[in-house]
Write a structure and sequence with these properties.
The complex is a heterodimer of chains A (308) and B (459). Chain A is α+β, with helices and mostly antiparallel strands and 308 residues long. Helices cover 20% and strands 42% of the residues of chain A. Chain B is an alpha/beta fold and 459 residues long. The longest helix of chain B is centred in the first third of the chain and has 28 residues. The model of chain B has no long low-confidence stretch (mean pLDDT 92).
């Protein structure tokens, strides 16, 4: 028997049986791990005791996010914390599974607490700031018009029928929204190309030359407008749509004209407004596109004020 | 296969009432064919490499969690794997016997494979090179014409057309339509390493990563060893007197070609992703044969140290130990066996950390039936990715409360499901708006990993 003269089959036999037994043991071990109810309770208690209203709460490990929303509840994972983006929170707490999560760029770690299989990393922005206003939160107090070559058609805030659907339907259109001729402006969660939710001012930009104008008055200005914008994933992932112009005006004066092209995903922006810090102004968001096929864009923005 | 599903339902469920659940009757033919695939795999391995190899090969295939899961579905993937085994047997037999009858059997087997699923189109990439290597010389060394290379393509199409009445009219146009359907199939969304892949090409790493993540590591190790182990290490164990050294090389090469041809298309630039490992499932019986060969050599390396009277018993124990790990993975994966992430990558949580897909077509709905049962009579449920026929069957068979009403828009529902896949996040986000909450009332998990969230409308 040739196999007897070589040590390889014997070694292979040992390895094979060891691998199989290890695999069986591995199943048992892995079935018993994972964040427990006690871990979540401890995390919730800690967050409830330490988070202030202006702090962000991020879920660093993507797959635990549904559990985090269930266990922590809407009270801790508020709409703003779910969708406003880390860059609009000066201090954040990041909940992760066994450290499998990353901090947003530009944040400095203050500390880390471990609760079983979960941990909370506390961090603050390298350049501290406070948020004076979140535009999507103030949408119901804004005014919306459609601007066709200087002729403005007002849109009406009201409670209408809501729309939500299955895969491919696009972001839900809530009952409370602005109704305009042929379109809407609403606060919704927009899913970007990375499948991340953004709490945003959401609309379908018409491609017929009309501009969607959202106007907030008496905005307490800070040192910058900060946020991001992007299209609903399936509206831009094929890369066939027309670009969208995203213009910001303050008191009628254009301060920035940004653009979004299909495939760019969620684009962060920051517009310096140092001269206006401390004043109350009229801020306008103007959206237009040369083509109108599924230009389903969301814009999320806040007024931030740098703090020493 | 669809005809078999229907015949099974009509006879075993409707007429004879031997199978009480209609869904089980539909799935039964795939189960039978999968069992035959396990048997055939073991038989092929045993004939070429010995009984230990046969036993191990059958064990590895039966305990391969992806194959086990698909063996229980009314789908074509496990059946086409069984048909590949049948064609392999018929091809090897035709090369050996060189009779008209054996060629006819091979042709019929290939026709049945064509009838089962279009993966049969790949088989020539296995049969032709193998036939040229092993079918051009008779046992006495004289050159012969390899009729076995011709038979599948002469007989097979007749069987294909004969068994599919739709092809009896406008035959050529409908065959083209059938081919076009598969060649221009819709792309599906699949999460791979945290990214949603929805258009060709499939990432080059897709197949290797998914194989490593879902095929038991023990089986992969055994298959590699079985591929590389020299012929003279294969031991003619005493309870397998029919071992032939010529068959060893022939089957070994056939298996390598079968695995290679099944995997190959996923490295081509135009191959899209429209699903996971089920598209190369037909490779697994042949990988199991290679693993059986490797296990046979490895186990015998241990068994020879046991006293002769106990040696066969030691071989059996060795096979049981070698298959133990894979079997545990398979048992533990149930009922979420479509994504059976193995301990080597960290199990289910490892798969989730890597950003790998964990379900498809909302097949997990039944697992949240107890949550849905909390609804008042005639409560409305947004069933998300649950296939409509599946929902109807779940209710008809009492797996989900029969009075509940399925809706297809969250705003019309009292409860809403989200079957978690990366590209389904948008549905989650939509429900947050429709239900004015982001906090589900229940999250179905396996090893702590979320599968389904259930939201309840605030009163």
């Amino acid at each position: 028997m040739a196999s007897h003269s070589s040590p390889v089959p014997f070694v292979a036999g040992v390895v094979l049986v060891a691998a199989s037994v290890a695999e069986a043991v591995g199943v048992f071990v892995q079935a018993r791990g994972g964040p427990s109810e006690a871990d979540w309770t401890a995390v919730k208690t800690q967050l409830a005791a330490t988070l202030t209203e202006s702090d962000g709460l991020l879920i660093g490990t993507r797959w635990i996010e549904p559990l985090a929303r269930q266990k922590l509840g809407d009270g801790l994972l508020t709409r703003e914390r779910l969708g406003a983006g880390a860059s609009t929170f000066s201090r954040v707490a990041v909940v992760s599974e066994r450290g499998h999560g990353s901090l947003p760029a530009g944040y400095i770690v203050d500390g880390r607490d471990v609760f079983g299989d979960l941990d909370i990393t506390r961090a603050h922005a390298a350049a501290p700031f406070r948020v004076n206003a979140r535009f999507e939160s103030l949408l119901s107090r804004a005014s919306v018009v459609l601007d066709a070559n200087g002729v403005e058609t007002p849109c009406t805030w009201g409670v209408y029928g809501s729309t939500s659907g299955n895969l491919g339907t696009g972001p839900a259109i809530p009952a409370e929204r602005f109704a305009c001729p042929g379109l809407f402006v609403a606060r919704s969660f927009v899913t970007d190309t990375a499948y991340v939710a953004h709490d945003a001012v959401y609309t379908d930009v018409p491609g017929d030359g009309r501009t969607v104008v959202v106007r907030w008055t008496d905005v307490a200005m800070g040192t910058a407008l900060r946020g991001g914008f992007g299209l609903y994933v399936e509206a831009e992932r094929d890369g066939t749509g027309a670009p969208i112009s995203v213009e910001w005006r303050i008191n009628g004066r254009s301060v920035a004209t940004l653009s979004h092209r299909d495939g760019e995903g969620w684009k962060p922006f920051e517009i310096a407004t140092n001269d206006l810090a401390g004043s109350h102004e009229v801020v306008e968001l103007r959206l237009r596109s040369p083509g109108g096929s599924r230009r389903w864009i969301g814009v999320s923005a806040a007024v931030v004020e740098a703090r020493p | 296969m669809k005809s078999l599903f229907a015949i099974s339902w009509l006879t075993l469920h409707e007429h004879l009432a031997w199978i009480s659940a209609a869904s089980l009757a539909f799935r039964f033919p795939a189960m039978v064919l999968s069992a035959l695939a396990v048997f055939g795999t073991g038989l092929l391995a045993a004939e070429a490499f010995g009984a230990t190899a046969g036993l191990a090969a059958a064990g590895f295939l039966a305990a391969c969690p992806g194959f086990f899961h698909h063996a229980h579905l009314a789908c074509f993937d496990a059946p086409i794997a069984a048909l590949w085994v049948l064609v392999a047997w018929a091809h090897l037999r035709a090369l050996r016997l060189r009779t008209v009858g054996s060629y006819l059997v091979l042709g019929i087997a290939y026709g049945l494979a064509l009838e089962t699923k279009h993966n049969a189109w790949i088989l020539p990439a296995v049969l032709v090179p193998h036939g040229l290597l092993f079918g051009c010389r008779a046992a006495n060394g004289k050159p012969v014409f390899p009729w076995a290379l011709i038979a599948p393509y002469v007989v097979g199409p007749f069987v294909f057309v004969a068994l599919w009445p739709w092809l009896w009219h406008d035959t050529w146009a409908r065959m083209q339509a059938y081919a076009a359907f598969h060649l221009h199939h819709d792309y599906y969304n699949i999460e791979f390493l945290g990214r949603n892949v929805f258009a060709p090409p499939a990432p080059l790493a897709y197949l290797p990563v998914i194989v490593a993540a879902t095929v038991p590591t023990t089986m992969i190790l055994a298959a590699f060893f079985g591929t590389l182990a020299p012929r003279d290490w294969v031991v003619r164990d005493t309870f397998s007197p029919r071992v032939r050294t010529t068959a060893d090389a022939s089957l070994l090469v056939f298996c390598v070609l079968a695995v290679g041809a099944s995997f190959g298309p996923f490295f081509l630039p135009n191959t899209p992703v429209f699903g996971g490992y089920k598209h190369w499932l037909q490779a697994y019986p042949f990988a199991a044969i290679l693993a059986g060969r490797g296990a046979s050599v490895a186990i015998d390396g241990l068994a020879v140290r046991v006293r002769t009277p106990f040696r066969n018993g030691a071989r059996v124990v060795g096979v049981v130990l070698a298959v133990l790990g894979p079997a545990m993975v398979t048992v533990h994966a149930h009922p979420f066996g479509i994504a059976p992430y193995v301990p080597a990558i960290g199990g289910m949580r490892g798969g989730a950390r890597l950003g790998l897909n964990r379900q498809f077509w909302g097949y997990t709905t039944q697992n949240v039936a107890s949550v849905l049962a909390e609804l008042p009579p005639h409560g409305r449920v947004f069933v998300h990715d649950t296939a409509w026929d599946a929902w109807v069957a779940l209710q008809a068979e009492g797996r989900v409360r029969a009075d509940l009403q399925a809706t297809f828009t969250p705003q019309d529902a009292d409860m809403a499901l989200v079957q978690h896949e990366l590209h389904m996040n948008e549905v989650d986000h939509s429900i947050w708006v429709a239900f004015d909450t982001a906090s589900p009332v229940a999250v179905l998990t396996h090893d702590g990993v979320p599968y389904v969230s259930v939201y309840r409308r605030r009163r």
